[in-house]
Predict the 3D structure of the following.
Amino acid sequence: MYHRVALVASGLSSLEGLRVLDLACGRGGGLAFLAEHFGIRQATGVDLCPRQISFANDTYKDFSKCPISFLIGDIETTKPLLSSQEPFDMVLCIESWHTLPFPGKALRQISEGIISANGRVIIADGFLSERLA
Ligand SMILES: C[S@@+](CC[C@H](N)C(=O)[O-])C[C@H]1O[C@@H](n2cnc3c(N)ncnc32)[C@H](O)[C@@H]1O
């Protein structure tokens, strides 16, 4: 599902070489799947829940396809957490945006230095069908 969202919603034919940030990454499986099979260059996941992040860090500690890291953080205040990182080529937020009390605040954070100038922000919530296209 992650790869369909990333490819169909972005209109890209490939994710090769992209730096991808997954906001509300949960246990990290979706992001790791992209990193394993779609040639992304660097993967960072952020989630509010320390247990999910701890699971992701344990599960993917020996991951070798590309640098992958998982950080505890709130989407709405994530900018300081990522300030030392280069802007990302793609920011994903899947099945999570609807939970944000202040979505405008989150968008501002993403647009102010988290996403690169020609990057793509993909927010996907409320799927009605397993098929995206
Ligand atoms: C339904 S899960 C989706 C996980 C993953 N994106 C996926 O599709 O498999 C929702 C996730 O959003 C996270 N979450 C909710 N509010 C958040 C926030 N403000 N900042 C970061 N993560 C948040 C929860 O901890 C949970 O892991």
Summary: The domain at 2-8+15-124 is CATH 3.40.50.150 (Rossmann fold). The CA atoms of residues 26 and 113 lie 23 Å apart. Residues 24-26, 30, 47-49, 52, 74-76, 94-96, 99-100 surround S-adenosylmethionine (CB under 6 Å).
